[in-house]
Amino acid sequence: MAVPTVRLNSGHSMPQIGLGVWQASPDEAVPAVVWAIEAGYRHIDTAALYANEAQVGEAIRRSGVPRDQIFVTTKLWNSDQGYSQALAAFDASLKALGLDYVDLYLLHAPVVGKRADSWRALEKLHREGKARSIGVSNFGVHHLKEMESYATIPPAVNQIEITPYLQRHDIVEYCNAKGIVIQAYSPLTQGNKLSDPRLVAIADKHGKTTAQVLIRWGIEKGFVTLPKSVKRDRLIANKDVFDFALDARDLALLDQFEEGLVVGWDPTVWD
Ligand SMILES: NC(=O)c1ccc[n+]([C@@H]2O[C@H](COP(=O)([O-])OP(=O)(O)OC[C@H]3O[C@@H](n4cnc5c(N)ncnc54)[C@H](OP(=O)(O)O)[C@@H]3O)[C@@H](O)[C@H]2O)c1
């Protein structure tokens, strides 16, 4: 079944599930991305930090699916923030990917003292058509409010860690009000909660896996969700979440899972 898309404030559309490739080694990344595209994924989430942009580009070419049908995101790493550094880092990413534009370019995190200059660089890349949409990652509400003082183009997305165990109501409310799409990273809690008996009960009720319930939760909330797997059977199953829906009772139960669990880093609290 085709993955639905969401419309960004840039006017472009983004598939609601993307394959994450953080911690996919170069050897793993090529087959994983080829399998994903074969399985119907049309959205890949990489970053300069992940050191697999070249393999993502290679897999897209190998897949035989036209480049313009695949939504490709990459990100500016923190040590490359600043205006001229960001422009140079973007060129390096584009070269590694072997592409002439990316669909989405993100500031990986809100680096203190650099993020405004970095954003100016992203705006230039957007105006030149090299980054069709631009956005941020790991921005808290105070970072997003501050952006209103320096951004002439608003961010299309804010990519953050978000799961039933870390619901970030303040960021969600702000982004929804401003038309900024939330991308949910580490949607599977990096595996930490896949055996939670409360989650198992919901999964059993629907005849689905706990991973599928977590992914479906993000879809129900209107997020774009980015599960990572380098295993063919898993990445196929992770996309198979459009033949069931969580009902009001499931969603009310999941709302109670909040425990402030951060499985990655948390730059949303940086100054
Ligand atoms: N912007 C940021 O700062 C940031 C930070 C973190 C992540 N991200 C993005 O979000 C993506 C996903 O996040 P993540 O990689 O941290 O974690 P995740 O997607 O929550 O979990 C990935 C882990 O779960 C395993 N897994 C995948 N599908 C499974 C399934 N169906 N059943 C059981 N285990 C399964 C994977 O192993 P196998 O691969 O062996 O299947 C891997 O160990 C990243 O790849 C990246 O694109 C962004």
Automatic annotation (TrEMBL):
<dbReference type="InterPro" id="IPR036812">
    <property type="entry name" value="NAD(P)_OxRdtase_dom_sf"/>
</dbReference>
<dbReference type="Pfam" id="PF00248">
    <property type="entry name" value="Aldo_ket_red"/>
</dbReference>
<dbReference type="InterPro" id="IPR020471">
    <property type="entry name" value="AKR"/>
</dbReference>
<dbReference type="InterPro" id="IPR018170">
    <property type="entry name" value="Aldo/ket_reductase_CS"/>
</dbReference>
<feature type="domain" description="NADP-dependent oxidoreductase">
    <location>
        <begin position="17"/>
        <end position="258"/>
    </location>
</feature>
<dbReference type="InterPro" id="IPR023210">
    <property type="entry name" value="NADP_OxRdtase_dom"/>
</dbReference>
<protein>
    <recommendedName>
        <fullName>NADP-dependent oxidoreductase domain-containing protein</fullName>
    </recommendedName>
</protein>
